[in-house]
Design a protein that fits this description.
Helix content is 55%, strand content 14%. It has 3 domains: 2-103, YqgF/RNase H-like domain (Nucleotidyltransferase, domain 5); 116-206; 221-334, no CATH class. With 337 residues, the protein is α/β, with parallel strands linked by helices. The chain has helices at 34-40, 58-65, 77-83, 91-103, 115-147, 160-168, 173-205, 208-213, 221-231, 240-246, 271-287, 289-299, 304-325, and strands at residues 2-8, 12-18, 24-31, 48-53, 71-75, 251-256, 259-265.
């Protein structure tokens, strides 16, 4: 068996091939064009397996070489650094390290999302990004009003009545021009957001799991599609705690010499999954009496933020049970505190 470690970059990658004894067979930079990548793997007399760190280019790299090699391993970048930290770090060392870790079966694997999951992620992440940009533009308008001592009497400056007030408000020429430009951009982004919402609704309609997830308090169609995109195959998580860790909702723990220290949540893993579950917890407190009761009991002895994260974790547990076992949502999960 021949083991190849790949250090990927935007324009090229550095690849190192070693045999089962660790002897280097071939190494060097390769252009990222598919033809050049496929050509590099020609001529090997034994089966080839490849290790590559997870990055934005790995799907294209996989499609280019998957017919040339036996197996491709996607590797967790942070865990590789923890296993093989070195003061000397360059492309040659990184690719050789991956090859030798692969040969010794010491690589920390990362899940390789299928094409459908990647497309779903791209769709929902576009919608999230558009929403974030629109929120930033709205903040700029609020800042302009604040700088000039203006306060809107309506709760939503960007609602129908608020926009009518905003159009009539008197501002200096530069501030007025900035306000008008931001509002025009907000309207344009709103059209794109509505278009993406329609596309996501069609995707959700074709996937029965989205309807199941929407039965959980705080989770709607949009949130359900984010969950399906970020989680992917739920079977890759051995239990609910593994999913909590992936969402960064588990507290960090340090233990040494019999002493154990706990802190806040780790915030590792998928930031979008963590964000959507915390948002779901906010909504669940307002829409579900059982969720509100669970939250209020926790808030009596914990900080509200801690209680809200605990509720988010509880809801994510319901998501896990529903996706893995087909268990319908039951509000009795909020009974124990």
């Amino acid at each position: 068996m021949i083991h190849v470690g790949v250090d990927l970059h935007q324009a090229f990658c550095y690849m190192t091939a070693v045999d089962s004894t660790g002897r280097s067979l071939k190494a060097g930079p390769v252009d990222n064009r598919p033809a050049a990548l496929r050509s590099w793997f020609q001529g090997f007399s034994e089966p080839v397996e490849v290790a590559v760190e997870a990055c934005s280019f790995w799907p294209a790299f996989k499609e280019a070489i998957e017919n040339q090699v036996g197996q491709i391993h996607l590797v967790h970048p942070q865990r590789v650094k923890a296993i093989a930290s070195a003061k000397l770090k360059n492309d040659r060392v990184d690719s050789a390290t991956l090859a030798h870790l692969l040969r010794c079966n010491l690589l920390p694997p990362a899940w390789m999302a299928d094409r459908q999951t990647r497309e779903r992620r791209q769709r929902v992440r576009l919608r999230i990004s558009l929403g974030q940009h629109r929120a930033g533009l709205k903040n700029q308008v609020h800042a302009i009003l604040h700088q000039h001592g203006l306060r809107c009497e309506f709760s939503d400056v960007f609602g129908k009545k608020g926009r009518a007030w905003l159009e009539q408000v008197e501002l200096p020429p530069a501030a007025g021009a900035a306000k008008d430009t931001y509002c025009a951009l907000i309207d344009a982004l709103g059209e794109h957001i509505n278009e993406q919402q329609r596309e996501i609704a069609l995707m959700a309609k074709a996937d029965p799991r989205a309807k199941w997830l929407a039965s959980i308090p705080g989770i709607g169609v949009y949130s359900a599609m984010i969950l399906l995109a970020e989680i992917g195959e739920v079977q890759r998580f051995s239990n609910a705690k593994a999913l909590f860790s992936y969402a960064g909702l588990m507290p960090w723990v340090r233990e040494s010499a019999g002493k154990k220290t706990r802190g806040g949540i780790s915030r590792c893993g998928s930031p979008r999954l963590r964000w959507v579950m915390v948002e779901a917890a906010h909504t669940a407190v307002r829409s579900s009496p059982a969720a509100k009761s669970y939250f209020e009991k926790l808030r009596q002895r914990k900080h509200p933020h801690v209680a809200r994260v605990a509720l988010a974790r509880k809801l994510l547990g319901a998501v896990y049970a529903l996706l893995r076992d087909g268990v319908a949502f039951d509000e009795s999960i909020f009974a124990a505190v």
